[in-house]
Amino acid sequence: MEILKYVILYVILFVAAYIIYYFFVTNGQIKTIRGKAKKKKELSAELIFLRDYYHIDIEKVGKIRILRIVNFMNAILISGLVIAVVGISQVWLKLLIVLVVLIPVIWGSYYLLAKYLKHLERKIDNV
Length: 127
Description:
The protein is mostly helical. It has helices at residues 2-34, 45-52, 58-61, 63-85, 91-126.
């Protein structure tokens, strides 16, 4: 029964993080890409990072597609980190664990995302 409680909490956190991230970050970027925004914004930090550090051709793969994948991945990361520390009672220990684990988890997940996007680039080139 304890596991079911954590699974339900994870699903609720995932949906909440996905919706919040979508409306506050992804939706604004999609409007900018489609030309419906009132003022032109720079690309999001995620797209710039993937383009400059991992040399992903974001035009070829599709900016909106990448933004949606990043949105999904960030919701998984946020809800996973919260679930990892929800059982700890001390607040300072929770913060310490999240701060220590957050950077390597984000770095690793973006590395795996870049590998997947490189695969998509090759797949698009072969078509």
